[in-house]
Amino acid sequence: MIERKIRIALAGIGNIASGVLQGIEYIKAYENKKDFLLHPTILGYEVKDIAIVAAFDVDASKIGKDIVEAIFAPINSTPKFVEIDNYGVSVFKGPVLDGLSDTLREVIQIAEGDPVDLVKKLKEAETEILICALPSGAELAVKAYAQAALDAEVAFVNCTPTLIASNPQWAQKFKKANLCLIGDDLQSLAGGTVLHKGFLEVLNEQGITIKDTYQLDVAGGLETLNTLDDDRKQYKRKVKERTIQDATQNNINIASGTSDYLEFLGNRRIGHFWILGEGFMGMPVKIDMRLETLDGPNGAATLIDVIRATKLAINRAHGGPMTSISSYGFKAPPISTNRYTANQRFNEYIEGVRPV
Ligand SMILES: NC(=O)c1ccc[n+]([C@@H]2O[C@H](COP(=O)([O-])OP(=O)(O)OC[C@H]3O[C@@H](n4cnc5c(N)ncnc54)[C@H](O)[C@@H]3O)[C@@H](O)[C@H]2O)c1
């Protein structure tokens, strides 16, 4: 009989981690709400099959706490959607490295003591998938977790914009070890990027020539505070702008990214979109739009699908970069496609009619 449990570890117990943990418990409490996911079940895998077995962070307000207490630490802004009993899974201190930007260091106190041995903890917990949800721009720390996944022989899902799945050297390492690698930069289910790309794709298909476009966000979560650090902001912007560029046919003016941190918005993200195009006989086509969502549930809705698809890949003994899963759930996958193709390939992979 196939093992139904999907044993995941989370690195970074921030808003995405809160969204995933609460998402699992929310579906357990309100079974009928699973239809809000794109894939209520994935080849028999239910949301309740996901089990969080290990957790890592560096924040003193989270280390040593049960993961359920840690996700509700005041510094996380994802609201409480459901009451949850403690899991009995403590948050361990991971390696700090460049995990915290200067702006995050102003509000996060690093826990005292040495970091744990990641590989040992991953193995002890019998982890199958390590989810990396560290702040953007934490290159060294993300790579340390990717290496730990390799050494502990577990699959690696990279929610951050650091290029791992799209980096040929890392892809090769995971391929050689026959371990699944998925990423990079999680794409929220109904987020700014997916909508922006969608509008541009439709306009392109209808023969409109896009001239200029931007999607600029303001938000109040920790990740937005992180991107007040200029290097990190530019890093994240580059990844987003490349994604948008892929959705257009011309060399156009593009700006896409977070423009400011407004603490009082909490977990809310407000995106402003502008598209200027030209149609038949020079007709101007303009779109000016505003989108408001919550980061935690929006990212978790994608990740919960990705986790279950990754378990299928593990059952199938697939390894290396999982291109269909990555194109479906991430902004910078190894193979970039339009949303329609990405969704189609993901479904074909689940059905077993696509190799990776
Ligand atoms: N909807 C979304 O939330 C969304 C969408 C797309 C991409 N992402 C990406 O997912 C990642 C996580 O987003 P988030 O909103 O959960 O971020 P967050 O800032 O809320 O949480 C990050 C967590 O990582 C911890 N951390 C920092 N350094 C660490 C280290 N060295 N080891 C372990 N933990 C460490 C922080 O203390 C914090 O708890 C970001 O890179 C973001 O760009 C999120």
Notes on the structure:
This protein is an alpha/beta fold. The protein folds into two domains: 6-187 and 297-351, Rossmann fold, CATH 3.40.50; 192-294, Dihydrodipicolinate Reductase, domain 2 (2-Layer Sandwich). The chain is 37% helix and 20% strand. It has twelve helices and eleven strands. The chain has helices spanning 15-29, 67-71, 102-105, 118-124, 139-152, 168-176, 192-205, 222-226, 230-246, 295-315, 323-329, 339-351, and strands at 6-11, 50-57, 91-93, 129-132, 155-158, 180-182, 209-219, 253-261, 268-278, 284-294, 320-321. The strands form two sheets. Strands 3-2-1-4-5-6-11 form a seven-stranded parallel beta sheet, with helices on both faces. The protein has a four-stranded mixed beta sheet with strand order 8-7-9-10. α1 crosses α10 (295-315), α4 packs across α5 and α11 crosses α12 (339-351). The two termini are 24 Å apart. The site of nicotinamide-adenine-dinucleotide has 36 residues, from α1, β2, α8 and α10.
